[in-house]
TrEMBL record, chain A:
Main location as per UniProt: membrane
GO molecular function ontology, one term from the record: metal ion binding
Gene3D superfamilies, per database record: Cytochrome C biogenesis protein (1.10.8.640)
Name of the protein this chain belongs to: Cytochrome c-type biogenesis protein
InterPro entries, per database record: C-type_cytochrome_biogenesis, CcmH/CycL/Ccl2/NrfF_N, CcmH/CycL/NrfF/Ccl2_sf
GO cellular component, one term: plasma membrane
Domain CcmH/CycL/Ccl2/NrfF N-terminal: from-to ranges: 16-154
Organism of derivation: Acetobacter estunensis
Function: Required for the biogenesis of c-type cytochromes. Possible subunit of a heme lyase.
Bilayer-spanning residue ranges: 112-133
Topology in membrane: Single-pass membrane protein
BP GO terms, sorted: cytochrome complex assembly
Origin superkingdom: Bacteria
Record keywords: Cytochrome c-type biogenesis, Heme, Iron, Membrane, Metal-binding, Signal, Transmembrane, Transmembrane helix
From TrEMBL, chain B:
Protein name: Heme lyase CcmF/NrfE family subunit
Compartments where located: Cell inner membrane
Keywords: Cell inner membrane, Cell membrane, Cytochrome c-type biogenesis, Lyase, Membrane, Transmembrane, Transmembrane helix
Domain Cytochrome c-type biogenesis protein CcmF C-terminal: 315-640
From TrEMBL, chain C:
GO biological process: cytochrome complex assembly
PROSITE patterns for this protein: THIOREDOXIN_2 (PS51352)
Source organism: Acetobacter estunensis
InterPro entries: AhpC/TSA, Periplasmic_diS_OxRdtase_DsbE, Thioredoxin-like_sf, Thioredoxin_domain, Thioredoxin_ResA/DsbE_sf
Subcellular location: Cell envelope
Alphabetic keyword roster: Cytochrome c-type biogenesis, Disulfide bond, Membrane, Redox-active center, Transmembrane, Transmembrane helix
Gene Ontology CC, one term: outer membrane-bounded periplasmic space
Membrane spanning stretches: 15-35
Record's protein name: DsbE family thiol:disulfide interchange protein
GO molecular function, one term: antioxidant activity
């Protein structure tokens, strides 16, 4: 029910690309939307980099030239100027658009596997490697036959 | 050279491929030399048929044959000749044909270079490649026919996206595909080994050059794609963590692991089962990544027009290729012998660690890429996984990898001690310390500092390794030179590839400090950024062949001296009703000055222009490093041991043939 | 090593070697479900799924968009019967495509329109040309009200239950059969 080929108008209708990098690339933006205080502007940019442009691909709203991204940039700057915390601004966005808008998903039960993956993969890898070291240092296989030894020597000589 | 001839050639190639898949396999099983001997001929025949089919499509594109649907949709009379040719693979149907062609080249290459392989192994490898090729050619013929006709034929085509009309992008797909498809050869070797029930040192040595070659192409392909997005898209970025990019990074990571674990198979007859799995996995990632992107499952702009029949066919093809090979793996791998003594501190120990870290990285990128569709399917929740996640999750795994990269190549095989190696690396360690101090001072952010330091360590240890081996400054120069000449090229290749990684990482770390500014200026106005004075001295309208350009002139001075004059422009294409920005980049090898011109504001009497100015330190190093990596790979390939020294396999006696 | 131990080892090894197959199989089934879901519309990887259903309408005020009159949050909160809110624009082709469906639908439920980032004269022109399905129309010139509603593009529609609760939401055009079916289901539920 949720939409077949949903033609969204805000998305500039771009020819489909074969390789590399999303489209809707940043045209030059309006400098008027930047905050006068460079520190506040830097903070706004950092927050914007965490928020996904809803109508483009994995771009952040800071990197996108889509109209909605520009609106959201403005909203972020207004809230920064009001002195709201990063957390408050991101929560404001999530309240409207859900977690889809966060480029870095919150840590919850359902994203535990995602955030835990670096540790999990490393753990599995280290355990497997330790098993390899332990197993191999106690020779369990039969000693090499004459032919095998000859081949091994040949291989080593070439190396 | 009519399209029908092309379709016929494609069908012929498919017949060849089917024969290539069946006959030699049967021959190897029955030990029938005649059937096995058919394999090279069939592979070459298939390649010739594919070349003919491809030539027909190129011919149709060059001669503006608008009775062919594919040409109508992607070409136009006004398109420059170069892009008419490269546009052939700039769309779904054509790219599948290119994919099949490269697979055909791989098959013929195994037939040509694999003369020293045992005939049964060669027959099986070529047969597996034939089977995969047959699948692609069937896909091409049934659901993605590039030779479909339209009636009535229109007078002109619909043209091509102007962003794609770029030399960098034109040659990016063939290079990238050669990387992807190249991993089909190690895959075929793995399948053949599973059928034979035998993996040994010789197998490791035969697989390695193919993996290195594919890896070099993939490295270049990824770098070209990233470079293209840097200089075409015009916002100074170079990597988006888009599913399409991740789809190329995942096989690159597992392929890098494969390249290294194959060394352990060759030298120590260990990690055999793991290497076979990596060979299967790398090609599976290459296949599924590209096709998942095209099926539209991954949320990416790169998805081709979705055709359900296509999606189902692709999935079936993936099921047969990946599922089939994993069934074979589950069935036969347990009977492969394991062996070799292992000590943690040794070359092989370092290579195991390399595999652990690379595969962890691979798992992280894979999970991050696939998490959103799975969340949506299983829980109906939508989430996004982007740059902040990937940065946070991958860099902490990458830094230890860089640290161990320094030690690894210097450790001797079997049993090593760390201390002597550390002593040999004192120069690199010193350089690293200096780099750490400098980056503490010059860079902001913990991760950039650590990355830059690690990068210097990688480069330093690679240089120290080579210097130590040729006794540079310890022996007379002439003697060092003689030693260098006698040093195997593969050693240089390794050092270069590792140093290349360091160079790329250094570029990435420095780019985290890039500065940019968006300004609105009058002509003649000067902006100061990153120690440079940027002056817009003029703007003019310049008509192009199929667009209108607004071209600005920016003079950049440093301390009053003219550094460069750049001409960024903004092009409006009437045919596609689209504008593109033409970035101006001035590089001195250490940094890029990057200028973009945007909208015109104000009145015609008093116009102002929006400019986006970037200062990108060490930006060229990111791609230069990739070039060095690929060159290192090529250097290793040119080592005579890789080509002619391959050991002859001992008779089967004693080893366990499959049950 | 005892025979039994060895046999256990071999079994474990076999199980381990089957793991990649199991993993690939699970992924394969999932991909198949996704692909078939994409055909029926049950699975859409581009869906944003803004969490708006089940919530009260946000605070907002919209100025008049001729030929209609604007409205505010209070108007929706004091409703006695359901209303369909529809964000549209004259520059949006799918919006024009769904106009006929809206004209049919307004006999069933009153539709209030919001002209999103549109010049008043252009929006008025569209309604003159294609017919006006809206009982009231407000203008969201800057697109800021749309953000509070979680709108990411046009057309987008919301069903408001009496009291001002958002009970149904679609980011797809109402000319789509499936979307209308689900809207009808929501309408029956509200009526009950």
């Amino acid at each position: 029910m949720r939409s077949l080929a949903r033609l969204r108008c805000v998305l500039p209708l771009l020819a489909v690309l074969l390789v590399a990098a999303p489209m809707a690339a940043l045209a030059v933006d309006d400098p008027a939307e930047m905050l006068p205080d460079p520190r506040e502007e830097a903070r706004a940019e950092a927050i914007g980099a965490q928020l996904r442009c809803l109508v483009c691909q994995n771009e952040s709203i800071e990197d996108s030239s889509a109209g909605l991204a520009r609106d959201l940039r403005k909203v972020v700057r207004e809230h920064v100027a009001k002195g709201e915390s990063d957390r408050q601004i991101i929560d404001w966005m999530v309240a409207r658009y859900g977690n889809f808008i966060r480029l870095s998903p919150p840590i919850t039960i359902s994203t535990l596997l995602l955030w835990g993956m670096p540790l999990l993969a490393l753990l599995v890898g280290v355990i497997a490697a330790l098993r390899v070291f332990r197993r191999r240092s106690t020779p369990e296989s039969a000693p090499l036959s004459e032919e095998e030894r000859a081949r091994l020597d040949e291989v080593r000589r070439d190396a | 050279m009519s399209p029908e001839l092309g379709r016929f050639a494609l069908a012929l190639a498919c017949v060849f491929a089917l024969a290539q898949a069946i006959l030699p396999l049967r021959g190897a099983r029955k030990r029938d030399r005649r059937l096995m001997a058919l394999a090279p001929g069939l592979a070459v025949g298939q390649l010739l048929a594919l070349v003919a089919a491809f030539a027909c499509l190129v011919n149709a594109a060059v001669t503006d044959d608008f009775s062919v649907a594919n040409i109508v949709e992607n070409s136009a009379v006004s398109k420059p000749l170069l892009y008419k040719i490269t546009g052939v693979w700039g769309n779904h149907e054509g790219s599948i044909l290119l994919w099949a062609l490269i697979l055909g080249i791989c098959g013929a290459a195994v037939a040509g270079f694999g003369r020293n392989l045992p005939s049964a192994l060669r027959a099986r490898v070529i047969a597996v490649l034939g089977g995969v090729a047959a699948g692609f050619e069937l896909f091409c013929l049934t659901t993605s026919d590039p030779f479909d006709r339209v009636w009535p034929a229109p007078l002109d085509g619909q043209g091509m996206n102007p962003l794609l009309q770029d030399p960098g992008l034109a040659f990016h797909p063939p290079v990238l595909y050669t990387g992807y498809v190249g991993f089909a050869v190690p895959f075929a070797f793995a399948i053949a080994a599973l059928i034979e029930g035998r993996v040994d040192a010789a197998w490791g040595r035969w697989v390695r050059p193919w993996a290195v070659a594919a890896w070099s192409f993939l490295t270049l392909g990824i770098a070209m794609g990233s470079w293209w997005s840097y200089y075409v898209l015009g916002w100074g970025g170079y990597w988006f963590w888009d599913p399409v990019e991740n789809a190329s990074l995942i096989p690159w990571l597992s392929g890098t692991a494969l390249m290294h674990s194959a060394i352990v198979v060759e030298k120590r007859e260990a990690l055999k089962i793991w290497t076979v799995l990596l060979a299967i996995g790398t090609f599976s990632f290459s296949l599924s990544g590209t096709f998942l992107v095209r099926s539209g499952i991954l949320n990416s702009v790169h998805a081709f027009a979705q055709d359900p029949a296509r999606g189902i066919f692709i999935l079936a093809l993936l099921g047969v290729v990946i599922g089939g090979s994993l069934v074979l793996f589950a069935w036969r791998a347990p009977s492969l012998t394991t062996g070799g003594l292992f000590a943690p501190v040794s070359r092989e120990g370092a290579l195991v660690l390399n595999n652990v870290l690379l595969c962890s990285l691979c798992a992280v990128v894979l999970t991050g890429t696939m998490y959103p569709p799975f969340m949506s399917l299983l829980f109906g929740k939508t989430i996004s996984v982007g740059k902040p996640f990937f940065d946070a999750a991958t860099i902490p795994l990458a830094i230890p990898l860089f640290i161990f990269m320094g030690f690894g190549p210097m450790l001797p095989w079997k049993r090593a001690q760390l201390w002597p190696v550390m002593k040999r690396l004192w120069a690199a360690a010193l350089a690293t310390l200096v780099a750490f101090a400098v980056s503490l001072f010059g860079l902001s952010g913990v991760l950039p500092i650590l990355c830059a330091t690690a990068a210097v360590w990688v480069i330093g240890s690679s240089v120290t390794d080579i210097a130590g081996r040729i006794a540079l400054f310890k022996a007379p120069l002439a003697q060092s030179f003689q030693r260098a000449r006698n040093l195997p090229r593969a050693v240089f290749g390794t050092a270069m590839a590792h140093a290349g990684v360091g160079v790329t990482v250094l570029g990435l770390a420095a780019m985290s400090q890039a500065q940019h500014r968006i300004v609105e200026v009058h002509v003649g106005q000067t902006e100061h950024m990153a120690g440079y004075d940027w002056t817009l001295t003029g703007v003019k309208m310049a008509p192009g062949p199929n667009y209108m350009a607004m071209e600005g002139t920016i003079e950049i001075r440093r301390h009053g001296h003219l550094v460069t004059v750049m001409h960024p422009s903004k092009r409006s294409f009437n045919a596609q009703n689209q504008t593109t920005t033409d970035v101006a980049i001035h590089t001195n090898g250490l940094s890029d000055l990057y200028g973009v011109i945007g909208d015109k504001h104000g009145t015609d009497a008093d116009p102002t222009y929006v400019l986006r100015l970037h200062y990108n330190p060490l930006a060229p190093w990111m791609w230069f490093g990739a070039l060095i990596m690929a060159f290192g790979g090529a250097l290793s390939l040119s080592d005579r041991r890789m080509r002619v020294g391959a050991p002859r396999r001992a008779p089967l006696a004693g080893t366990v043939a499959a049950q | 090593m005892s025979d039994e131990q060895q046999r256990n080892n071999v079994t474990r090894r076999r199980l381990m070697m089957g793991l990649p197959l199991v993993g690939a199989g699970v992924c394969g089934v999932a991909f198949w479900k996704m692909l078939s879901g994409m055909q029926t519309g049950a699975f859409n990887p581009h869906d944003i799924n803004a969490p708006v259903t089940g919530r009260p309408v946000p605070d907002f005020t919209l100025v008049d968009q001729p030929p209609g009159t604007g409205f505010a949050a209070a108007d929706l909160r004091t409703l006695k019967s359901p209303v369909l809110i529809n964000f549209f624009a004259s520059w949006c082709i799918p919006c024009i495509a769904e106009m006929q469906a809206l004209l049919d639908l307004q006999k069933q439920v009153p539709i209030w329109g919001v002209a999103y980032k549109d010049k008043p004269e252009n929006a008025a022109g569209l309604l003159k040309h294609a017919g006006n399905p809206y009982a009231r129309i407000g203008s969201d010139r800057e697109g800021r009200v749309a953000i509070d509603w979680g709108v990411s593009g046009v057309p987008e529609s919301f069903l408001i239950a009496p009291g001002g609760l958002i009970v149904w939401h679609s980011a797809a055009g109402l000319d789509n059969e499936d979307v209308r079916t689900s809207l009808n289901a929501a309408l029956t539920k509200v009526a009950r």
